[in-house]
Amino acid sequence: MNSRIRNQESGIRNLILVLFALCSQLSAKIPEPDAIFFGNVKHNGGVLLVPANSGDFIVVAKLNGVTIAQTSLNALSSQFVLKVPVDDGQEPRLAGMARGNERVRVYLRRTSDNLEVETNESSGSNGLLIPAERGALTEMVSGLSVSTDFGGMAPGYAPFSTWAEGFGIMAYPGSTDSDGDGQTNLQEFVAGTDPTSGGDTFHILEVRRVNGVSSIKFGPAMLSREYSLYCSPDLSGSSWVKIGTIRPNSAAAFQWFDHITPDGTPHLFYKLSVDVR
Ligand SMILES: [Ca+2]
User: Fold this and answer.
1) Is residue 231 domain-shared with residue 130, that is, in the same domain?
2) Please, which residues have CB within 8 angstroms of residue 182's CB and are 6 or more apart in sequence?
3) Which residues line ion ligand 1, judged by CB < 5 Å?
4) Which of 83, 98, 148, 225 is at 20 to 30 A from 238, Cα to Cα?
């Protein structure tokens, strides 16, 4: 009898120990959560930073001067995803992790010469805030920008400062409209037009319609730019439909884009936009 009770007690203790061991194992397997910052990196004048090669630029997060996270930008992409490991708040504190309500400083580093510049979002507020709530996954959209004009662009991409210098307008910020044509210097940089000539603006140059095909002429067609073409039966603003994306393989004074016009359409309006890629 006594022996049976002892056996039962021992069995329960073993079960508790097994459960405890299982719990320890489970808790040990749960990874620490990350605070995830993602968005685009922009540099001088708010222009997207477009690296020519993967690894040319690295986004670095530091806590008290120590790097705790980093991610490199891919070739021809300004997008970043930065995962900052977050401590559970319990003692002992784990090394290399941020805690809720702490601020991490975020820098952009050019790997060719290790030039490191703190991002505007970081320096303005003494760092990016780690949320107090420690979720399994915390995501924050947070674009990053640096005031510096980094080089290292995609082939055919002239940095804004180099471009502005060529026109003698480097003393003006991108938001200035030096020639008063309604398009800012930054917009003219993206479009590839002359910022000192009021007659040179970004617009569709010509539209022809022959046998159900509309041909839209635009220019200049620039490398490292992406052109988006839209059409609409009216100018209501709500009915624009994107009909094409153009990424020129070579720079040219102009380029044509053909659009098969839907039957029974008496007329169509076209709209063109350009962005750095
Ligand atoms: Ca202008």
Assistant:
1) no
2) 201
3) 177, 179, 181, 183
4) 225
